[in-house]
Amino acid sequence: MNTTHHNLTTMLATSLAAAALAACGGGGSSGTTPDPSALIAVAPCATGYKSITIDNSSVAGAQMSIVVANATLEFSTLTGYTQPSLQICMGQPAQALSQAGFYTLSETYELQATPLNMLSAGIQNLNRTLTVQFALTGLPAAELAGLQNGSSTVALINKIRVFMPDASGVWQPMSQSSFTLAMTTPTTATSKVVVSPDYSGKFVVAYKP
Asked: Average pLDDT, stretch 129-155?
């Protein structure tokens, strides 16, 4: 056998085996571990939506807000904890929410909080409040009349909520932290509801009889 050819064949086999071993994480060296704090690319906010991005460089305890039409999202960055890295978008989707049996009282809005690294969760890790102002003109006539004469105030407060569809499309109410109902002139005055959203998605103020 040609000695030179034999040596070249042996070297090639050895090189291929070493490459295969390295690809499997062998050969005495560990594979590369992804950095969980590294920022990842995400899609930009939808056209016309407003956005705020926060990350580890954001000032702790900073107050921020996004205002879209009659909805205001206010939140503050964390103090004493690792700051989540999030892209927060809010706007009005092209398709409004509607569901049989519900009377919508506000515009439809959409909130999207997208983690920018593997360490961050959603918006529930922030101190946040969402305030939605709305008129009561969308109520049934009987409820409006009862509100004006004071006979149905409590019943209405218990049935007006900020609703967000779940994964199955069923409207679920958010827990309310405060509620201001315009009782004297409901067709012109502005009512207000304040909630703390936990998830991304579309939402609307509605009355459910």
From this structure: 81
